[in-house]
Structure formats: structure tokens, C-alpha cells
Write a structure and sequence with these properties.
This protein is of the alpha/beta class. The chain contains 14 helices and 11 strands.
Length: about 325
């Protein structure tokens, strides 16, 4: 049995705690004796989450059991951390067989010196802070989770569920993780190197209606002519004015936005359909399998066929 110990503190993000806990609890339902889930706060008294929910820990730090997996959630409480938390992590973190952070929990691990010399991620809004405050950490702002040895860091909030599912898959196999994902009605499909947010979330929504309509058109027609000339005509602007306005209002160039939309569309087709690579490359607007392959390797580090083999759920019978 693997003991999963979750660190609690005031102003913790509740979903950072409950999301992974539900995954590990689901594994216990799938196979008895898989995990023992425990929580601990500095003095063993209840903590209040950032949303106002009260959580009652099982232990104080002093009497907490030795964990197999030590899970450190994030939340507002990581911005001005309780020194009792970072001091305890500094001493006990290296003893865990597996050290895991969710969201800005990485800030606590960094403050305890446990990420120095490692690659790590956190919520996209705090990656710059993590890199600035801790230059010894190789901060990667793109993935939803990162593994460096036995240290795992994840991005914002719900990515803790993705990481917990990946850990269950490592411990108990894909069938267990898939059964839990189905029970929780979430996808067992998000690889760690998937971007933290979709093209639509990565870009700001344009203020002007013609530009918003162009954003929506790109999303719905990735296989169309999405050149600046074509898109600017749709927005009834000159190409130069359109390109400048689009970047100003969305935070990225039209070309970059199109790249993200096409990659996301192709990824979903690889995950959700049995369509061939050539067919998908046309549907996503790449034109040729080679063009799609280059985009996948550049952004995701794997070719489309490899991506499909690794991340498409196996058929069930």
C-alpha cells in the first residue's frame, strides 16, 4: 500500500487537494489496498481554503506518517508561505519516494530548495515568478505536468487530476487509470507535454467584433485559407492594419494563432478518430503529412503517429 500524504495550509486551493485525492480514492475502489490517503497541517488543526471551505487534517506534521507520495497543493497560501510548511518540506520532502506539486505548490517546493537543478512547471501565471525567484530551476511554462526523476510538478488546478491519473497509471496500469477517468468523467488523454491551455484560451479575446469573428472562423475552419490576406478581407481591414490590430488585441500574431488552432485540431482528431494521418493533415489545414509532422515535433516533441500510439485510449471490449 502506498501512503499519499497531502500537505494542508491556510488558503490552499481546494481543488488542488480534492482533485488528486478523488483520483487516488478511485484507485482504492478499483483495487483494494492500492493507496492510503492522509492529510496533515502544521499543527493538526483545520485549515480554511481560499474559497472558504474548511478542511480537517488527519495529522499534524509531527505525527504524519512517512509518505510514499508527498503531494503539495497550491493556492493563495503559497504566495506568503507559512515557514512551518517550507521548513517541514525541506526536511521531509527528500524522504518521500515521490514528490508531487499541484499548481503553485511548486513555489513551496522551490522555497524549500527541492527543485534546484530540476526542470519544473507551475500555473502559467506564476512561471515567470518561479524562474525569477529561483534561477537554479529550469522552468518550463508550457506542459501541464513535468517529471524530473521522482519529482513531479503540474500546472494550474485541474492539471493535478491529469498528473494523479498518470501516477495511478504508472502504479497500477492503464486499465485502472482509464476506469477512474471514466468514473470521474474526465479524459485520460492529456499528456504531460500538452500545452497548458488551448489556442482560444492562450489568446485574449479581441475587443472588436470583426476580429472576434475572425478568431471564431479560424477555430471552425482550420483547413481553409487562413493567410493574413484572406483573414484581413474577412475582417474588412487592410492586411497591415489587420495584423497589427490582431496582435494588439489578442496578444499573438495571426500566424501564431493559426498554428495553435491547427495543432489543437489535429491532436484532437488523432485522439478521437481512426482517421489516417494524411486525412487528418488535410482536415487540420497542414496540407501534407510532412508539414503536420514538423509542427508536432517542434511543439510536442513527437511525430503524429507516435502521439497517437501514446495518448489515444486503447479500445475496450
Amino acid at each position: 500500500m502506498r501512503t499519499v500524504l497531502v500537505v494542508l495550509f491556510d488558503a490552499v486551493q481546494s481543488l488542488d487537494v480534492t482533485g488528486p485525492v478523488e483520483v487516488f480514492a478511485g484507485a482504492e475502489n478499483y483495487r483494494d489496498g492500492s493507496y492510503r490517503i492522509r492529510t496533515a497541517s502544521p499543527d493538526g488543526t483545520p485549515v480554511r481554503t481560499s474559497s472558504g471551505l474548511a478542511l480537517v487534517p488527519d495529522h499534524s506534521f509531527a505525527d504524519a506518517p512517512a509518505p510514499h507520495t508527498l503531494l503539495v497543493p497550491g493556492g493563495a497560501g503559497t504566495r506568503r508561505p507559512d515557514p512551518r510548511v517550507t521548513d517541514w518540506l525541506r526536511e521531509h520532502g527528500p524522504r518521500a519516494e515521490r514528490l508531487v506539486s499541484v499548481c503553485t505548490g511548486a513555489l513551496l517546493l522551490a522555497g524549500a530548495g527541492l527543485l534546484d537543478g530540476r526542470r519544473a512547471t507551475t500555473h502559467w501565471a506564476y512561471c515567470d515568478k518561479l524562474a525569477r525567484d529561483h534561477p537554479a530551476i529550469q522552468v518550463d511554462p508550457d506542459p501541464i505536468y513535468v517529471r524530473d526523476g521522482q519529482v513531479f510538478t503540474s500546472a494550474g488546478v485541474t492539471s493535478g487530476i491529469d498528473l494523479a491519473l498518470a501516477l495511478v497509471e504508472e502504479d497500477l496500469g492503464r486499465d485502472a487509470a482509464l476506469a477512474i477517468a471514466r468514473h470521474l468523467v474526465v479524459f485520460l488523454r492529456r499528456p504531460g507535454n500538452q500545452a497548458q491551455f488551448s489556442a482560444q484560451l492562450a489568446a485574449q479575446t479581441a475587443q472588436r467584433e470583426p476580429l472576434r469573428e475572425v478568431q471564431q472562423w479560424i477555430t471552425e475552419h482550420p483547413d481553409d485559407d487562413l493567410s493574413v490576406e484572406s483573414l484581413s478581407a474577412r475582417a474588412r481591414l487592410s492586411p497591415r492594419h489587420f495584423a497589427r490590430a490582431f496582435r494588439t488585441e489578442t496578444g499573438m500574431t495571426p500566424g501564431r494563432y493559426v498554428e495553435r488552432v491547427r495543432l489543437e485540431h489535429a491532436r484532437r482528431l488523432l485522439e478521437d478518430t481512426a482517421d489516417g494521418i494524411e486525412e487528418i493533415s488535410r482536415a487540420a489545414g497542414y496540407g501534407t503529412p510532412e508539414a503536420m509532422r514538423r509542427a508536432f515535433v517542434k511543439t510536442l516533441g513527437s511525430a503524429p503517429a507516435e502521439y497517437r500510439r501514446r495518448f489515444r485510449p486503447a479500445p475496450t471490449h
